[in-house]
Design goal:
By secondary structure, the chain is an alpha+beta fold. The protein folds into two domains: 267 residues, Zn peptidases (Aminopeptidase), CATH 3.40.630; 145 residues, 2-Layer Sandwich (Alpha-Beta Plaits). It contains 14 helices and 20 strands. Strand 4 and strand 5 form a beta hairpin. The protein is globular, with a radius of gyration of 24 Å. The mean pLDDT is 97.
């Protein structure tokens, strides 16, 4: 392959990756893994495919280290969410390059970072880079759904393929202008997703005679209003404290944080508000399947996100108190995931800090908690990995990116792809060089 520039190289690779439809479900990520393997092996990068089922392979590529240095992992995933072509200005799997941007499903989430990671490790291999510890690039399956075909399975079935001290993943990199200063967001922790069901009981009957029944749906409405209206006492997590010191110059009382942040910029308030408390969002409801039958059972699904370190066992008594005792119900927490954090005083943070200050004078990194969660928690739980989400964007604003991820006309500037390659090359040398 003739290499002209890193920007041209990453742009071309991303276009080709987008043209591989890896919508999950069903995924079919093996096709993307094979494309990446063919690209990397021409530069002498060692590659291996791992698959729980043949059509859902993850790629793990590696430059082996020469000594006892730390292992660094570039983590990414190749599956994407559904794209309705009728909503798009271009075919969503065309990978079209238009006015310096690559268009298509996955351009931002997250085939752009996949391509940048591949080009970073390929370019280092071409240059004869010899890290002290292994440099790994993993492009995994099944992040968007999480049915056990991706990173969780790899950590359990092939732990030595991914064992690492440090990892760079998705989930950060936004450039924020707040109060006349520039900040780049680095995601160092995540909330715990802990959904639960409320099963409300009543007595069925014919809808034409509501007086002889006990409508579980009507009773559930009272509980929905209570849980949706609950506002826990705010508390300041360590990551939020560092963020506030950087942006406000001090840490105000927890109850004043949102107001003080909003005085700087509404984006700052929107960023920190969900990081101060657990959140409870009723999102789904199931009751009668017939219009003329009053339901005896109503199931309400609540999307619950807890702060790092909190557990469903800790929060369940709080939820029961909020729901009250006047309605008969069962409360069942489902499988919880995430809720992990990584330390800030690490070589990985130093690498991000040095890159940001060299990239843009006066800019500083700020840590945040991911209000959702990423695959980073599997690494933290399995290996104690220090994992950050950071892939910087300077051309595309965070406001625009937020409207495009998982939406129509998803695209990424080629300049930001090149910047991502530069960051990954920098962190490889800073942490493992």
């Amino acid at each position: 392959m003739a290499v002209t520039s890193l920007r041209a190289e990453v742009t071309d690779l991303l276009s080709r990756l987008i043209r591989v439809d890896t919508t999950n479900p069903p995924g079919n990520e093996t096709a993307a893994a094979e494309l990446l393997r063919a690209y990397l092996e021409q530069f002498g990068v060692e590659c291996q495919l791992y698959a729980r089922v043949p059509e859902r392979a993850s790629l793990v590529a590696r430059i082996r280290g020469t000594g006892d240095g730390p292992t660094l992992l570039f983590l990414s995933h190749t599956d994407v969410v559904l794209a309705d072509a009728a909503e798009w200005s271009v075919p969503p799997f065309s990978g079209e390059v238009r006015q310096g941007e690559v268009w298509g499903r996955g351009a931002l989430d997250m085939k752009g970072q996949v391509a940048a990671s591949a080009v970073a490790i390929a370019s280092l291999a071409r240059e004869g880079f010899e890290p002290a510890g292994d440099l790994i690039f993993a492009a995994t399956a099944d992040e968007e759904v999480g049915d056990g075909f991706g990173l969780s399975w790899l950590c359990e079935a092939h732990p030595d393929a991914l064992r690492c001290e440090y990892a760079v993943n998705e989930g950060g990199g936004d450039r924020l202008e707040l109060g006349g200063n520039i900040y780049y967001v680095v995601t160092t922790a995540e909330k715990l997703t802990a959904p639960f069901e409320i099963n409300v009981h009543g007595r069925s009957g014919h809808a034409s005679m509501p007086g002889i029944a006990d409508n579980a749906l009507v009773k559930a409405a009272r509980l929905i209003e209570r849980i949706a209206g609950y506002r826990p006492e705010p508390q300041i997590q360590p990551e939020v404290e560092v963020f506030l010191r950087a942006v406000l110059g001090e840490v105000p009382p927890a109850g004043e944080v949102v107001e003080r942040a909003a005085a700087v910029h509404r984006t700052a308030a929107e960023l920190v508000e969900p990081l101060l408390t657990p959140t409870f969002s009723p999102t789904m409801i199931f009751a009668s399947r017939k219009r003329n039958v009053i339901p005896a059972l109503c199931k309400v699904i609540v999307d619950c996100r807890l702060l790092p370190g909190q557990s469903p066992e800790e929060i369940e008594p709080v939820v029961r108190k909020v729901l009250g005792t006047d309605v008969t119900y069962d409360l069942d927490f489902q499988k919880a995931e995430g809720g992990t954090r990584s330390a800030l005083d690490t070589p990985l943070w130093s690498a991000a800090e040095s890159f940001i200050t060299e990239m843009e004078a006066g800019a500083v990194p700020v840590p945040v908690i991911c209000a959702g969660f990423t695959d980073s928690h599997w690494l933290r739980e399995a290996f104690g990995t220090v994992a950050y989400g950071f892939f910087p964007y300077r051309t595309m604003t965070p406001e625009l990116a937020a409207t495009l991820i998982h939406s129509a006309d998803e695209r990424v500037p080629a300049s930001d792809l090149e910047l991502g390659v530069e960051w990954l090359r920098h962190v490889a040398r800073a942490v493992g060089g």
